[in-house]
From TrEMBL:
Name of the molecule in the record: E3 ubiquitin-protein ligase RNF166
Keyword ATP-binding tagged: no
PANTHER family documented for this protein: E3 UBIQUITIN-PROTEIN LIGASE RNF166, ZINC FINGER, RING/FYVE/PHD-TYPE
PROSITE patterns: ZF_C2HC_RNF (PS51803), ZF_RING_1 (PS00518), ZF_RING_2 (PS50089)
C-alpha cells in the first residue's frame, strides 16, 4: 500500500499544474486586484483571510493602528502580510486575450501591453463623455453642500478634495484620538451630520478609497454596517 501511494504521489508531481477554471474566459478579472481593478502588480496576501491585493494598493491600509481587510473588513496583523509568490508564478504562467487587440499576453505583462495597445487607446478615446441628461438654467440653491471639496474635521483646513483630505489626515492627524464627523459622508443625501466616527482615519482609508462621484456603489454588508452605526448613533442621542 505504501508503495502504491508513493507511485501515485510521484505521478501527480509530474503532472503540469491545472489551469484556472473557465480557461481564458474572465482570466484577467480573476487575477485582478479588487482595489485598483487591474491585473495584480507585486501581489501580497493577508495571512488571516488570504485575500490578495497589489502591494502598493494595500499600503494605505497598513498606515492605521488597526487595519481591516479592504475586501472582507476583518482585522489583520500587518506583520502577517506576505508576498503572494504563488500568484506571481501564475501571472507568469497564464495568458489572457487583450481586451483591445485580442492578442494573448502573459498576465504579468498585461499592464504594460494595455498601456501601449492601440486598440485599447482607441476604445478609451471613443468612450462617451459625461454630459447632463437635461440642460438646465435653474440656479443652484446655496444650501446644497459642496461635494467636491471638504474641510478637515480635525483642524479646519479647507478646500481639500477627497484625495487631499486622505493625504492631509494621514500626514497631520494620524495619532489624533478625537471622534469626528466624516465630511464626505455628511455631504451625502443619506449622511448623518451628527454621527462621529470612532476611528475616522480608518474609515477614511477604507470607505472613501474611491470618489463618490465615480464609485457610488457599495456592498450589502457595507450598507448594513452603515445602517447599524446610524441606528446606534440615533439610540445614543
Amino acid at each position: 500500500m505504501a508503495m502504491f501511494r508513493s507511485l501515485v504521489a510521484s505521478a501527480q508531481q509530474r503532472q503540469p499544474p491545472a489551469g484556472p477554471a473557465g480557461g481564458d474566459s474572465g482570466l484577467e478579472a480573476q487575477y485582478s486586484c479588487p482595489i485598483c481593478l487591474e491585473v495584480y502588480y507585486r501581489p501580497v496576501a493577508i495571512g488571516s483571510c488570504g485575500h490578495t491585493f497589489c502591494g502598493e494598493c494595500l499600503q494605505p491600509c497598513l498606515q492605521v493602528p488597526s487595519p481591516l481587510c479592504p475586501l472582507c473588513r476583518l482585522p489583520f496583523d500587518p506583520k502577517k502580510v506576505d508576498k503572494a509568490a504563488h500568484v506571481e508564478k501564475q501571472l507568469s504562467s497564464y495568458k489572457a486575450p487583450c481586451r483591445g487587440c485580442n492578442k494573448k499576453v502573459a498576465l504579468a505583462k498585461m499592464r504594460v501591453h494595455v498601456s501601449s495597445c492601440v486598440k485599447v487607446q482607441e476604445q478609451m478615446a471613443n468612450c462617451p463623455k459625461f454630459v447632463p441628461v437635461v440642460p438646465t438654467s435653474q440656479p443652484i440653491p446655496s444650501n446644497i453642500p459642496n461635494r467636491s471639496t471638504f474641510t478637515c474635521p480635525y483642524c479646519g483646513a479647507r478646500n481639500l478634495d477627497q484625495q487631499e483630505l486622505v493625504k492631509h489626515c494621514v500626514e497631520s492627524h494620524r495619532s489624533d484620538p478625537n471622534r469626528v464627523v466624516c465630511p464626505i459622508c455628511s455631504a451625502m443625501p443619506w449622511g448623518d451630520p451628527s454621527y462621529k466616527s470612532a476611528n475616522f482615519l480608518q474609515h477614511l482609508l477604507h470607505r472613501h478609497k474611491f470618489s463618490y462621484d465615480t464609485f457610488v456603489d457599495y456592498s450589502i454588508d457595507e450598507e448594513a454596517a452603515f445602517q447599524a452605526a446610524l441606528a446606534l448613533s440615533l439610540s445614543e442621542n
